[in-house]
Amino acid sequence: MRKKLTICTNCEQKSAEGFQFCPHCGLKFNEELTIGVLFYNTISNYFSVDARFFKSFIPLLIKPGFLAKTFIQGKRLLYLHPAQMYLFVSVVFFFLFSFISRKQVESVDKVFKDDLKKTSLKLDSINKNDAQFNDINFDSIVKSNEVKGVNRKITYNFNQTKVDSLIQLNASNETIYKAMGMPEDAGFFKRKAYSQMLKFYKQRNGGSLLQGFYDSIPVAMFILLPIFALILKLLYYKKGPFSYHLVFSFYFFSFLFMAFGILIATNFIIKLPDSLVTIAILSTFFYLLIAVKRFYEQRWFLSFIKTSIATFSFLLLVIPLAIIVLSLATFMFY
């Protein structure tokens, strides 16, 4: 007798009658979508991730390399997925970091505003229509309006008094660019740089510039993580495909964000001494060393050499380059 077949509404695969769940996708047959079912699935899915996170939390902190090794061995449902772990921990870290960055942004803004108040020129008595912007006449105007005895906190590589005077006299941007030192044969990118510099100088909101840089860090870190994995791949080119090194990198960066997040959270409660913070930061190298030793299964001396190469290659080459690019991009499109 031919068995009756059931078609799954989710994956549309056929299976024999009698199964409570689809053998292909796991959907429960003939389950009505009630309010109870809807919230049960939502809550159970949320707490399954949450439970795996807490199950992964302790091994990530105290067993370097364990989660990465376990994952590539095929045990991929016991602990939180490496990419999932990275995204979750990084979100929490940058949320905590936002409190620190906000204070720094406010501090920078205060410095710029104080500097602007100290160096503002009172040129109301100058007849703007009669002002001639030739070198002799304008230099005498600037000289007469020099602010003496002012300790500028922020200095630029141009005559600020002259530029301030030109701004208050509503001079053209071209005239101001020339006062700032832009050559007459400046190309597009150089003119764009002077344009952004003048915009920044007029507004004096350095905090926004700093905030833009901070906002770029999460994206930059997500780009830098595969570069770290690539460095490991070059050092351990015989130890599996690139995806293995990427798994290791996801878990290691998750540890970094988690460790620094704990430091920030603790510092909110108790002011930690700088020496303790320095020790905690340096300890991340030894964590990486142990993780590399456990994951790649090489001798301690060789692991130390390769860990040092990976660390210094990343810090001395990648991060400064990323900071320069981020700073340039933030400044150019500010």
From TrEMBL:
Q: Show the stretches that span the lipid bilayer.
A: 77-100, 217-236, 248-270, 276-296, 308-333
Q: Which Pfam families match?
A: DUF3667 (PF12412)
Query: From which domain of life does this come?
Result: Bacteria
| Record has Nuclease as a keyword | no
Question: Which keywords does this Swiss-Prot/TrEMBL entry list?
Answer: Membrane, Transmembrane, Transmembrane helix
- Which InterPro entries does the record cross-reference, listed alphabetically? DUF3667
The protein here is known as DUF3667 domain-containing protein
- The species this protein belongs to is Mariniflexile jejuense
